[in-house]
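Handout, section 4.2: multi-component inputs.
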Amino acid sequence: MDTKRDGPLGSVMVVGGGIAGIQAALDLANTGYYVYMVEKSPAIGGVMSQLDKTFPTNDCAMCIISPKLVELGRHLNIKLLTLSEVEGIEGRVGRFTVRVKQRARYVDMEKCIACGLCAEKCPRKVDNEYNQGMSQRKAIYVKYPQAVPLKYSIDEANCIYIEKGKCRACEKLCPAGAVDFSQKDKTHEIEVGAVILSPGFQTCDARPLVELYGQNPNVVTSLEFERLLSATGPTQGHLVRPSDHKEPKKIAWLQCVGSRDSHRQGAHSYCSGVCCMYAIKEAMVAKEHCQDPLDTAVFYMDMRTYGKDFEKYYNRAREEQGVRFIRSRVYNVDAVPGSDDVLIQYASDAGDQSDGHPEIVVHQEQFDMVVLSVGVETSPETIELAKRLGVKLTEHNFAETDPFTPVSTSRPGIYVCGLFQGPKDIPFSVMEASAAACAAEIDLAPARGTQVKSRSVPPEQDLSEQEPRIGVFVCNCGINIASVVDVKAVMAYAATLPNVVYSQEYLFTCSQDTQEKVKQTILEHRLNRVVVAACSPRTHEPLFQETMKDCGLNKYLFEMANIRDQDSWVHQKEPGPATEKAKDLIRMSVARAALLKPLTEKPLEINQRALVVGGGIAGMNAALGLSRQGFEAVIVEKEPQLGGMARNISQTIEGLDVLAYVDKLVQEVKDAGIEVLSGSHLAGLSGYKGNFISTIDTGNGAREITHGVVVVATGAREYKPKEFGYGESDRVMTQLDLDKLIRQHSGKVSKWQRVIMIQCVGSRNKDNPNCSKICCQGAVKHALRLKKINPEMDVIVLFRDMRMYGVLEDYYTQARKEGVLFVRYDEKDQPEVSFNGPGIGVAFNDLVLGRRVSLGADAIVLGAATLAEENEQLATLLKVPRNAEGFFIEAHAKLRPVDFSSEGIYLCGTAHGPKLISETIAQSMAAAARAASFLSNKDMTVGGVVAQVEPGLCAACLVCVRNCPYGVPRIDPEKGVSEINEALCQGCGTCVSECPAKAIRLGHYQDDQIMIKVDALLEGVV
Amino acid sequence: MPCTGRVAIIHLMKALEKGADGVFVAGCLEGDCHYQAGNLRAKKRVAYVQEVLKSIGMDPERVAMYNLSAGQGPRFAEICREMTERVRQLGPNPIRKNGERKEKAA
Amino acid sequence: MIMAKPKPIQEIVNVIKDFDKVLVAGCNGCVAVCEAGGLKEVEILASALRMYFANQNQNIEIGEVSLTRQCDKEYLAEIKDMVPKYGAVLSIACGAGVQFMAEMYSEKPIFPGVNTNFIGVTLEKGVWSERCAACGECILASTGGICPIARCSKRMLNGPCGGSSNGKCEVSKETDCGWHLIYERLKTLGQLQRFEVPNDPKDWTTSRDGGPRKIIKEVSQA
Amino acid sequence: MNTLTPSNLEKVLAAGHLAVTSECGPPRSPDMAVVDEKVKEVGPYVDAINVTDNQTAVVRVSSLASCIRIKQLGYDPILQMTTRDRNRIGLQSDLLGAGAWEINNVLCLTGDHQSFGDHPTAANVFDLDSTQLIGVVKNMRDEKKLINGFEMTKSLRMFIGAAENPFADPFEIRVMRTAKKVAAGCQFIQTQCIYNMDKFKLWMKGLVDHGIHEKCAILAGITPMKSIGMARYMKAKVPGMDVPEDIIKRLQGVPKEKVADEGVKMAIEQIQELKEVPGIRGFHIMAIEWEEKVPIIVKEAGLYPRPKMD
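Output:
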């Protein structure tokens, strides 16, 4: 098993099963590493599983996370350790020994069938933490209905038997005999090559911050509010206020509860980075939930909608949905005597007075409900964990990382991702997770594939000459099915159906021992089709299909009838009709089974080379991330030298030398033997994922390169302003111009008396509705640098919202302390720049003073927007989409932030949207990890459920070409008929149902295979 | 079905032709299609079948499209009840009624 | 290609209702592409008819078939064993296909199931638009590649008339003024001076006005 | 005087007078009394009278039959012919008939689409278009030949006119299109009703710049507004009509009972203004179903009496 004694191990431990941990585990396991997933609660899913919808797409959180949970739960190379915590670690990178304590579950996971009878009968009710204590669960429970693993567990702190030695109701009633009070806590010693920490966060405790919270039930935290919106929440998604269960008419959100607050105990000085967006989302979703118009108001300091397409979301909320945004300081949240309402007293920001009145005015407004946008923080348990692991923390208790190695903790071989690294949203957590996977994969590259398991199956039987011989297995599911449906009668009925040569019932068909019996039966009775009448194919089909494979049967010769979820569970009070329905369902499945055909899946070799388009920080990191894992990478860079935009940036806001970093990267690229085609661009692309052929125009002739994947890292550019006299005077400059000036003529700069910076130049306006995210940071960075050069210099920043998200807030605070003046202006009341001979000046409305101020300045620095590079040609070649502003659109804004929807093409850096260097590095490593996970398979399986064209019938009408959501079909110019590449087809069947000549067939879902079920159901009806 | 994008007009027609009283298609929420837009195609096909039903004097309400997510169990139950109630109001598929009559006559 | 639109079911019902067995015959040529007469439409129409007659308590058997093309004898011949079993054939090919079917199976009543509309193009899925009136003497060379015969409501050769506004035809705001399109194209091509040259009356003998037409390609005859 | 035909209109124009024409829409029943009445009212105040050809595609007494009647009453008719309802055989046949009855003016039109009329299910013909019809008439007159080259023994004596809408889109080619009709043989143009004077003048300037006004007489189309409703209708519903908001505002500015008078007043002012526009050779006054106003307008505009030509 192990490689040489001193070589690294091919396994990784991921600590924390939230979305970041899940992503890291899946990336690693799919790239050839064995993963131990350590989760302290009984199920994975983390906070994301508690969210209702996610911004800015309003996707249902559960809908998008659920497939990931299932994939992880079923993964052959992920060992899931729930109720587990890391106690200690020894060793070094490549070879750690981790001590994991696993608490007793008191339920045998092998036996539990998640029927829920135990919980139904358990007499002890406790607050349900998944619903933030707003509903109750039993002492034996599953965390939530979609939980993975979907196995009950006993909460020992609340179990009557464990507490008092009496009860055992669950044990008595469990039909599977799964309850096991003899279980004890266990300690595992696990050897792994690397560790990824993704323990997540907790929300700040609102009690010390808002007195009324905890006293008035209508004051809730944002996470509680998520549960109130959720269909799986305490009110089944009916938005009612907790005090009287009436639909609210008026809800307020209070921002920055526990964030951007360096004074109060329990609060944090950093910005939590996500609350503005989730508050907007909650306000919009809440409006959708209510029958009557709902008034929503968000009380905030700065609206920080800095992410990709976030500003559009904010605009939509404000302009189309009528969410009110009130820039203010709330100083009191009070009860309204005689009612459950809440009174908010606030001082409005002077600038928001419509009459421009300078004085701060105090207002009060009454609301039905108040949502506290609570910030994020590292939990005490995680702080303890970090101590045990020897991982250093920042002053804010996040894992300490370097901006150039954003996922490396202070201890080599231990990586971090998600909220423990710093405040961030889901997509950035997912990016970091893949980046952390990449970092671990680099450490352990020699051991890739050494510890993973693969299933060996006997060769498939040839059934072409055989008549269907169907076996029907009817499951009692303990009493889940049997208590309602007459299983014996159903079994006997099944035996009478055409082609059925065998039928049998089992107590638990899915149990390990039954599967063995099923195998024997298949072989003994020479079954060549199997129908299981039991529960949902969503959870169990793969299990039974594995059994089929073990018997040398094609897995597509399997059919399931769901007589539990769709029958016994919903017709509990009508056993007779339920039995008849079970017969109907089985008759349908048997009929279909007879028509099923084996589908072949064949391997297709993957070219192991990656093409990276763009040689800036993103491209170089992506190429290095792949190269260091042993995959060949080729960089195509349009400029004569590598480095991209970063060559114009001297240092990060933390003070790190960017130019030196770029030089180091260039050297590393050279040392790694990565081929660099500079002064070149991608001129042509053919083939498909796994086997692309690119034509590179190198400036002196074309080069053809074959490769398996593409990484797009084409970067962005700084907007050349048309505003504020830019270009008319060399005293008006962008932040990048200023950077250059400081670098080259700091003497000149040091003589300046006053510098005025203007933010949002070319951003957040009609032409470019997005926020460019990094300009506030750029202004603060340079303001601090100027203050360092000459502390006497006046530095004034004219801004609309200071978007110093996350721990960047520290620098904003520092800048204010050092005397940088921040003055807000309104979008409709732009500052005016005037030239007066050699002098320049800026006139603006000081919203606090309430009057117009004119100031002369030595320099005016514009926070110019970050715009997409000219990339239309590339987008067309790769057939990848771009948003209205020209940034590439990832496959999914939340969970696939570095993938394109076309497989084999990945995205990183500012080509995706404006972002910081540290974020770019993380995203590039993530792109490398995603590409590596594809490349590491050496070959990909194609076929199975894919569409196939019958050329003789095809009229080449283009209907399939126009309708495929993935753009897969094309008309073969030689044959003159449609061709659907089985490697690219996703198997949705849209083309099949549209084809006017019915020339396309979808494997496993042919018309006859679908219609036969209808025929069987309605047999004898007409 | 892998996706409601695979639901063809003929599938819905056949179900009614074979005597079903009603047929509904349950797809992902709009904008949340697992296969990007299959549910939108299905919606159009359902609308088409409704037109055909009108043209042959059958009640278009016998077919319907619903959108819900995998996490909305209660909603699914609600839809089933809604559809059952609707079909109950409409009465049996006329094809079936005639079929029964034919049997008696035979 | 040739664009067609399904006939209302009631109209079809009226012509086939007195037959015991009717064969719905599709065509995988043009009408399949414009989603009016391919195999998919055959199935849908057949199913709709079955339901209709079942509801009428009428026992009519509906058969289904779709041919590669109905405008070629060889393909029509493929159903020679099938047609005699039916009382009538409902062809959902274009008018040419229906007629050729009727010529081939002259003993059977052959009914059209679609209305044949025009020669046109697919603008997008489900949207087709007329482009050619098959006049037999193409003048596109002089009109910037836009046909005034097919695309002007008055098939003017010296348009536009005085009735167009904002680039739309006086007949319908949904219809582009063909001559406005020609104007824009000629402007792009720098050939606006063409508007000053009167076009002579057209010789319509090559069009339908010359009576039923036939093409004999001498070379293939040889 | 250099004229090709005995047409009174041609003579008036050739003599350098500002010409005045008006029009008469024949009835929808076989009853010539209506024509008689209209013509007697308008005839003395104009040089020639247009007779519409199934205008707006509504079936009426034929233009040719009505022209013959007008000729009998001693006035100079202008035979309007659209190419919508007759092919080249029918058109030439009717032209020959008109020539035989010594009708000497023709106005060549393509015609409104039948979908606007009372027989929208009719087939249309459009064998020729208006420009081609102009060429056909010119050929019959100057070469004594039919389209097919058949040589007649006698020439068709026709003063050839056409209509033109200066306000239709695209404006850029309006002058070119007029030039084309003139090149085909058009000798006089009666324009669409003018309300947008600025745009009209721009068009006129274009004609003058190209010297078109020298080859062809431009008669400005004048239609008095009877009511605010009519103005609104024309603005919104009539294809190719350009009614500026100012016109409607001015009508709204007077008491309701004075609106009609104001409309007449505006028409008169318009004629006065247009008289000064270079290239204008006369006026075509279309008082739709309001023929009694024609004499007033002609008199008030200083266009009466009409010159007597021999």
